[in-house]
């Protein structure tokens, strides 16, 4: 059973995916442009629940991999990601039932729609991060120790590569990264295929509709001159952490990541204190300072989203700068990342911070409601890999 | 050195004469439908002043919003051909793909997408499709299109494919106006290509306008060379301006800031330019406005090129005041201020009336506002102060108190004490700061490139050398060149310690031919 995705849904998805990008993931703008053109040409895409997959269905997991700067020049062509999916089918000899995003946060939130439009397949309402993350092992499927291969990489010059077998997710990262660099530091990729059973057990459900829902509430609030932040908190069961003005941003690039720290000085109810947020492509840990006292208030895998106080749209770690009026909110992490194994992959220590994970949110009393109220960290494949 | 600076704004045409770095005289006249009439009138008025005399003029520098208005108002635009070099990449997003349909309908004549372009590391994406280019050039010639925009992937790093394509098109279409995207700057193909498309669309209007400006100064009996100011506060020759009209899109605001720097002698300061309807707030860095490094929409087209980073708020001398509950703006009487404001005998309560009642400025007839409660006037000024303070705070890039220069016809709305400001500076001729900024404009060169396997210092030095070469090619005196802006950004996910470096240098125009002064 599938639901039609309207073009308005996709406009909302672009806004919501950027917010779930938690500062990284690359802008969804080029993907949105592709979808507008595909819809104008008569293409349509449908969304299906992961729980409607048969256990032996095969699902293509897609992402655009590479440097955002290269994407700004070589753009995004919807046929490339469709070709990467077809390569996997040719390699395995099996057809895919549906397409799914590796990473809902940022530009990769729209990639599966681009593939699906050409292939006539539905998009699974799920991903493997629930957000954007910088490294290959920061996915729910890596936490689940699922098979990391094969991976198909495509360059529209007709360069097609399959990484057929690797001993670990880390090796997949290293091997595929080398190929990606030769392709011009950008590649359309179709990751290790997943079975319907695997998606149901390890996928992070309902993240596409969650992104659409967040985006819709932001756009509605903007139209009605209502408070978009309140709308996001209501829609995504989030918690407001801080509001103020960006007073300092320090960036450096190490090991292929954009790392740094942003400082926000409180305004209104937060006047007199400040919030410091460390990032590695995405926002990772936030500390609140009252005088000399610095205490962590939010950390991965909880999502830390830095939003424009007025519009509710996301600020990226690459573009945030002094003077911006920002409201920082936390959204709940997907449960898969809250286990000891999950925290090994995406907890604060995975980013080099010697902190015990403490959630902004109370522990979940039981199984999640089917609305998919939390997103977990997802690894950002396209943007997140180091060279 | 005697230079005339002219700023053609939406409301007023201002002109100043600058002699050896001193403002001799400034005038304001209404802008006219045909902008050249207003310029002729301003020149006549300026030269009728005894202090100006009839001595020779070395240069005339004009800043105008004419071209950006043409895009916004969709008038005077030409139908063009677009050539994209980058296949097989980006094929699904052709030129014009994110333009508003009404504007694309006016401008889009033909689109050609061909193999070519480069990768970030300098390798060709594909060899340039020269046969395809020749066919495209013949099709353009046969279709009668006279303007062409050419954009290649990563052309800011390697312009050779755009240059070769230009030569091929030129061979078939010798009269065509050809815009190459790398001349306009930045990394970001769609936005850079959009700037090139807009530029090509303005080519006929630019030719006609520059010819009109030349005729206007000739009619004033002036034979000096003509320059136009561009977005970054430097000038280009009239020939260059006819070729790259988009480079003047934000010249008016930039000129105000440059004029403020000159008149105050400060190179590092905030500037508040209060007009009749709006107030621009910006920051001077090394005497130039800080630049926006983000997408700027012009007439709903996304572009990315040199623009000052400005915050405009709806506050001006003509802002309309409502007493209960108190509202200040955003509506304004605008250019009708001298008819509609109370102090000028009108019946609309404006911010200027409040300022007169509070005694901060003496314009019009103060008796006409004597009935206004003084507390209301002070509340209005308090509101204006709060708006200005908030805008300053948004635009400042450091936490401490900084000096602030208040210019523009409504500068009296800026109080002497402001939060986050060490000192409010007011300058003579501040109401014509924009024309002063035009008169003093320097000439610049800029580069924006990715460097790999180089130390940061070496990469910046290489970028500076290229920027200097470009400035000299544009007409700068090499000895006067100084670096005004360096920005470097490490690039995540690219191998080889990739560093993107942007450098801008500026200096004096090489002197006009003739005896040195």
Describe the protein's topology:
The complex is a heterodimer of chains A (387) and B (517).
Chain A: E1 2-5, H1 7-20, H2 29-40, E2 45-48, E3 58-66, H3 68-74, H4 78-92, E4 98-101, H5 111-119, E5 123-124, E6 126-127, H6 140-143, E7 151-155, E8 159-163, H7 169-182, E9 186-190, E10 194-195, H8 196-202, E11 204-205, H9 207-223, H10 228-236, E12 239-254, E13 257-266, E14 274-280, E15 282-290, E16 293-299, E17 303-308, E18 325-331, H11 340-346
Parallel strand pairs in A: 2-5, 3-4
Antiparallel strand pairs in A: 1-2, 3-9, 3-10, 6-11, 7-8, 7-9, 12-13, 12-18, 13-14, 14-15, 15-16, 17-18
Chain B: E1 2-8, E2 12-19, E3 22-30, H1 35-47, E4 59-64, H2 66-72, E5 80-87, H3 101-107, E6 108-115, H4 130-143, E7 147-152, H5 160-172, E8 177-180, H6 189-201, H7 203-219, E9 226-229, E10 235-237, H8 238-243, H9 251-264, E11 269-274, E12 279-285, E13 288-289, E14 291-292, E15 296-298, E16 301-303, E17 307-308, E18 311-313, E19 319-322, E20 327-332, H10 337-340, H11 351-357, H12 374-395, E21 402-407, E22 421-426, H13 433-439, E23 443-451, H14 456-474, E24 482-490, E25 499-507
Parallel strand pairs in B: 1-4, 4-9, 5-6, 5-7, 7-8, 11-21, 21-22
Antiparallel strand pairs in B: 1-2, 2-3, 9-10, 11-12, 12-13, 12-18, 14-17, 15-16, 19-20, 23-25, 24-25
Helix pairs in contact in B: 1-7, 4-5, 9-13, 11-12
In short:
With 387 residues, chain A is an alpha+beta fold. Helices cover 30% and strands 27% of the residues of chain A. The radius of gyration of chain A is 19 Å and the shape is globular.
Shape of chain A: globular
| CATH secondary-structure class of the largest domain in chain A | Alpha Beta
CATH T-level topology of the largest domain in chain A: CV3147-like fold
How far is it from the N-terminal to the C-terminal residue of chain B, by CA? 6 Å
Rg estimate of chain B, integer Å: 24 Å
As a percent range, the share of helical residues of chain A equals 25-40%
The appropriate CATH architecture of the largest domain in chain A is 3-Layer(aba) Sandwich
What's the SSE pattern of chain A? EHHEEHHEHEEHEEHEEHEHHEEEEEEEH
**Range of strand content of chain B:** 25-35%
- Morphology call of chain B: globular
| Count of alpha/pi helices of chain A | 11
Amino- and carboxy-terminal Cα gap of chain A: 40 Å
Give Rg of chain A in angstroms. Answer: 19 Å
Question: Which strand order does the major sheet of chain B show?
Answer: 3-2-1-4-9-10
Number of domains of chain A: 2
Strand content of chain A: 25-35%
CATH 2nd-level architecture of one domain in chain B: 3-Layer(aba) Sandwich
Derived from helix and strand composition plus strand pairing, the structural class of chain A reads alpha+beta
Oligomer: heterodimer
Most extensive contact: A-B, 41 and 39 residues
CATH class of one domain in chain B: Alpha Beta
């Amino acid at each position: 059973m599938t639901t039609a995705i309207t073009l308005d849904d996709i406009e909302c998805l672009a806004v919501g995916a950027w917010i779930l990008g938690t500062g990284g993931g690359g802008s969804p703008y080029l993907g949105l442009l592709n979808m507008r053109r595909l819809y104008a040409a008569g293409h349509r895409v449908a969304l299906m629940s992961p729980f409607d997959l048969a256990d032996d269905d095969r699902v293509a997991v897609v992402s655009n991999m590479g440097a955002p700067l290269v994407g700004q020049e070589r753009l995004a062509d919807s046929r490339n990601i469709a070709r990467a999916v077809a390569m996997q089918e040719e390699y395995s000899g099996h057809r895919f039932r549906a397409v799914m995003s590796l990473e809902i946060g940022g530009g990769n939130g729209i990639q599966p729609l681009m593939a699906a439009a050409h292939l006539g397949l539905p998009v699974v309402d799920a991903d493997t991060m629930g957000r954007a993350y910088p490294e290959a092992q920061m996915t729910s499927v890596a936490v689940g120790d699922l098979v990391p291969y094969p991976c198909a990489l495509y360059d529209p010059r007709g360069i097609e590569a399959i990484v057929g077998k690797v001993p670990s997710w880390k090796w997949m990262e290293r091997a595929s990264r080398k190929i990606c660099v030769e392709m011009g530091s950008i590649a359309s990729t179709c990751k290790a295929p997943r079975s319907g059973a695997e998606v149901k057990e390890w996928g992070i459900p309902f993240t596409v509709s969650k992104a659409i829902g967040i985006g819709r509430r932001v756009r509605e609030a903007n139209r009605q001159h209502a408070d978009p932040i309140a709308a996001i908190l209501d829609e995504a069961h989030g918690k407001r952490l801080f509001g103020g003005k960006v007073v300092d941003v320090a960036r450096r690039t190490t090991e292929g990541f954009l790392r740094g720290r942003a400082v926000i000085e409180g305004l209104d109810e937060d006047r007199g204190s400040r919030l410091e947020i460390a990032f590695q492509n995405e926002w990772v840990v936030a500390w609140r300072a009252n005088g000399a006292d610095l205490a962590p208030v939010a950390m991965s895998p909880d999502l830390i989203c830095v939003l424009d106080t007025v519009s509710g749209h996301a600020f990226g770690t690459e573009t945030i700068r002094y003077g911006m009026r920002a409201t920082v909110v936390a959204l709940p992490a997907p449960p898969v990342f809250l286990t000891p194994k999950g925290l090994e992959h995406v907890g604060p220590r995975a980013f080099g911070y010697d902190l015990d994970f403490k959630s902004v949110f109370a522990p979940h009393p039981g199984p999640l409601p089917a609305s998919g109220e939390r997103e977990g960290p997802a690894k950002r494949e396209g943007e997140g890999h180091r060279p | 050195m005697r230079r005339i600076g002219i700023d053609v704004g939406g409301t007023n045409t201002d002109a100043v004469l600058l002699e050896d770095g001193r403002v001799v005289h400034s005038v304001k006249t209404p802008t006219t439908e045909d902008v050249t009439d207003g310029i002729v009138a301003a020149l006549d008025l300026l030269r009728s002043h005894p202090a100006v005399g009839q001595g020779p003029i070395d240069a005339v520098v004009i800043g105008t919003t004419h071209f950006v208005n043409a895009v916004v108002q969709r008038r005077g635009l030409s139908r063009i051909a677009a050539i994209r070099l980058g296949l097989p990449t980006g094929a699904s997003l052709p030129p014009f793909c994110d333009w508003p349909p009404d504007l694309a309908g006016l401008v889009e004549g033909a689109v050609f997408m061909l193999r070519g372009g480069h990768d970030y590391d300098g390798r060709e994406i594909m060899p340039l499709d020269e046969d395809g280019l020749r066919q495209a050039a013949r099709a353009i010639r046969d279709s009668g299109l006279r303007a062409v925009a050419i954009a290649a992937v990563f052309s800011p790093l390697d312009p050779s494919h755009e240059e070769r394509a230009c030569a091929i098109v030129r061979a078939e279409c010798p009269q065509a106006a050809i815009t190459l995207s790398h001349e306009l700057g930045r990394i970001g193909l769609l936005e850079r290509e959009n700037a090139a498309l807009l530029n090509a669309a303005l080519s006929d209007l630019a030719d006609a306008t520059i010819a009109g400006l030349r005729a206007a100064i000739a009619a004033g009996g002036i034979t000096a060379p003509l320059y136009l100011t561009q977005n970054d506060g430097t000038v280009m020759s009239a020939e260059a301006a006819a070729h790259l009209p988009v480079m003047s899109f934000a010249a008016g605001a930039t000129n105000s800031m440059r004029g403020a720097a000159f008149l105050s002698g400060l190179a590092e300061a905030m500037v508040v330019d209060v007009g009749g309807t709006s107030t621009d707030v910006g920051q001077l860095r090394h005497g130039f406005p800080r630049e926006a490094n983000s997408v700027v929409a012009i007439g709903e087209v996304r572009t990315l090129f040199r623009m000052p980073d400005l915050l405009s708020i709806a506050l001006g001398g003509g802002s309309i005041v409502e007493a209960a509950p108190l509202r200040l703006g955003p509506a304004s009487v605008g250019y009708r201020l001298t008819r509609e404001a109370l102090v000028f005998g009108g019946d609309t309560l404006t911010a200027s009336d409040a300022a007169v009642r509070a005694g901060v400025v003496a314009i019009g007839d103060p008796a006409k506002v004597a009935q206004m409660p003084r507390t209301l006037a002070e509340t209005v000024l308090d509101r204006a102060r709060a708006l200005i303070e908030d805008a300053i705070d948004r635009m400042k890039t450091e936490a401490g108190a900084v000096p602030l220069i208040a210019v523009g016809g409504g500068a009296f709305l800026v109080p002497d004490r402001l939060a986050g400001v060490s000192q409010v500076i007011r300058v003579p001729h501040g109401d014509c700061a924009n024309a002063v900024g035009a008169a003093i404009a320097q000439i610049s060169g800029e580069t924006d490139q990715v460097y790999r396997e180089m130390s940061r210092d070496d990469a910046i030095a290489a970028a500076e050398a290229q920027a200097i070469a470009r400035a000299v090619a544009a007409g700068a005196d090499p000895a006067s060149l100084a670096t005004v802006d360096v920005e470097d950004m490490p690039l995540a996910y690219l191998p080889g310690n990739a560093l993107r470096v942007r450098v801008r240098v500026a200096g004096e125009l090489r002197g006009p031919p003739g005896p040195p002064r």
